[in-house]
Amino acid sequence: MSQFEPNIIAFVCNWCTYAAADLAGTSRIQYPPNVKIIRLMCSGSVDPIFVMKPLLEGADGVLIGGCHPGDCHYTSGNYKARRRIVILKTILENMGFESDRVWLRWISASEGKAFAGIVTDMVDNIKKLGPNPMKEKWDL
Amino acid sequence: MYYKLVVKENDPIEAVNNFLAGLLRDGVVDALLVPQETPGSKSVVQTLVRSEDALKSANVFAPLLLTNSATSVGRITLDEPKEKIGAVLRSCEIRAAIELAKLKQLNLDNLVIVGVDCLGTYESKVYKGIAEKAQDSKTLTLEYLSNTVGAEAKTSEGAGVRGACQNCAYPNPANCGISINFLGLDVKKEVLIQIYDEIEGLDPEKLDLTVRDEVSAWEAASENCLNKRKKSAEAFIKKTLQETKDISGFTKELEQCRRCYNCRKECPICYCRECIFDSRTFEHNSEQYLNWANRKGRIRMPTDTLLFHLTRMNHMIISCVACGQCISACPNEIPIGKFFKATGAKVQEVFEYEPGRSVDEEIPQSTFKEDEFSEWGESK
Ligand code: SF4
Ligand code: SF4
Ligand code: FES
């Protein structure tokens, strides 16, 4: 059996985390290819429905990346995102999902290395968790 | 201030109606939203009343709540009417109204809320059954009230009130200008009226109210009821969370969901003008469906049932007042609100937020602190 390779969807903000991912690429920093990046203007525009949809479709993890507190290009998008993620993960936890499949991380434009490190960590963690059981469920 | 409203001829409904008529007569309010018995005597519905004589079949105690009227209060008050509106509401309706006010979908400015003690309401089907046997809604209500001393709500048939009501820890209304209380009192003789703020035009004397200092019977009964309900709510939440330790606890209930969206329509909190699930977002092209089916081998149609419920949860659970209307509205008796109540309690706890507690507390999603939840962007 081939080794389980997690499929991770990342919603990243244009101004920080996307730039960090870009920097990781141009600096040739190695990180696992398991992550599919979706660029948004701000972490504050990540509605929970965007996170839920891939999870229910069977994505193994969802990463939300934004600017560090105080650095959001739109001042407070990341603070609002944080509250939404707190709600989302509390719901997941209490409704019987593995809430560890959802990560929120602050990664600034200059932190290409941190981006690579976080993706590596997340992939390792999710490998331990195993495939998302939602993959097998059709009755949703 | 506490006042006694004297009940004549064993009829508290009539006494309260006279009191409410007085509010209209004295111009305390210019219009009143109040539940009334329908002509066919099978139901009790909210009515918007402009004149005293249109109050004849009002019945504020009837154990039926077809909809949470916070939505109606929002409609009536939102464009800042010049006239003063009164609204007779139960605790779950007031708490929802407070949340709607924060969501800017209800205006509290020219509104006098008249809260009523509540021991629970029946599912409409159950109510209809009882109403068919009873002489009329009035007899039914008096019967129901006669069982309330000691704060037990039972009917002669022994049929229980709605599950949401059995676990409701708010038998007394709060955040109102006036309240009508009866727990622990002999309603054949008296009803307790409380007036909280200075209300323009309200003269207790003209309304036949006499000052009352001693309300220990009401307090004791309320506390007794509250404690019982709190205990059962805690047990209920614990049991439900046990069921949802695994997602199948929720999905097996959704197996019969027919996607009518009644739960969403009846929810007083669901605040979006247009729900994303009514938009074109979920109309895909043929190839998309076929691809999806290909990936999992099969997909349920229509798609995204669980996504609908979880999205609704994410958007409004912080304000869920556990009124249970979503449960009553479901044609397939899916206890959707039980999951909102249990998980809602957890989410609300994280933010130390209690929906409906105070209009001055912002809804957690609409605000933030810089210095909070710091581990959630770093390691959680
Ligand atoms: S989700 Fe259900 S219980 Fe909660 S406020 Fe809406 S209708 Fe009431
Ligand atoms: S009311 Fe019941 S059947 Fe209709 S969408 Fe809600 S849960 Fe599903
Ligand atoms: S712009 Fe990066 S989080 Fe708002």
Task: Note down, in words, how this protein is organized.
The complex is a heterodimer of chains A (about 140) and B (about 375). Chain A is an alpha/beta fold. Chain A has four helices and four strands, in the order βαβαβαβα. Chain A has one domain: Rossmann fold. In chain A, helix 1 (about 15-25) crosses helix 4 (about 110-130). The model of chain A has no long low-confidence stretch (mean pLDDT about 95). Helix content of chain B is about 35%, strand content about 10%. Chain B has 13 helices and eight strands. Chain B has helices at about 10-25, 70-75, 90-100, 125-135, 135-145, 165, 215-245, 250-255, 260-265, 285-295, 305-315, 325-330, 335-350; strands at about 1-5, 30-35, 45-50, 85-90, 110-115, 180, 190-195, 210. In chain B, strands 3-2-4-5-6-7-1-8 form an eight-stranded mixed sheet, sandwiched between helices. In chain B, about 45% of the residues are buried. At the A-B interface, helix 2, helix 3 and strand 4 of A face helix 8, helix 10, helix 11 and helix 13 of B. One iron/sulfur cluster binds near residues 330, 332, 334 and 336 of chain B.
Short descriptors:
heterodimer; A: 140 residues; alpha/beta; Rossmann fold; four-stranded parallel sheet; B: 380 residues; 37% helix; 11% strand; globular
Please describe the topology of this protein:
The complex is a heterodimer of chains A (140) and B (380).
Chain A: E1 8-13, H1 17-26, E2 35-40, H2 48-57, E3 61-66, H3 77-94, E4 102-106, H4 112-129
Parallel strand pairs in A: 1-2, 1-3, 3-4
Helix pairs in contact in A: 1-4
Chain B: E1 2-6, H1 12-25, E2 31-37, E3 44-49, H2 70-77, E4 85-90, H3 91-102, E5 111-116, H4 124-133, H5 137-146, H6 163-166, E6 178-181, E7 190-195, E8 209-211, H7 216-243, H8 248-254, H9 262-266, H10 286-296, H11 305-316, H12 325-329, H13 336-350
Parallel strand pairs in B: 2-4, 4-5, 5-6
Antiparallel strand pairs in B: 1-7, 1-8, 2-3, 6-7
Helix pairs in contact in B: 2-3, 7-13
The complex binds iron/sulfur cluster (2 copies) and FE2/S2 (inorganic) cluster (FES).
One iron/sulfur cluster (SF4) binds at residues 266-269, 320-326, 337, 340 of chain B.
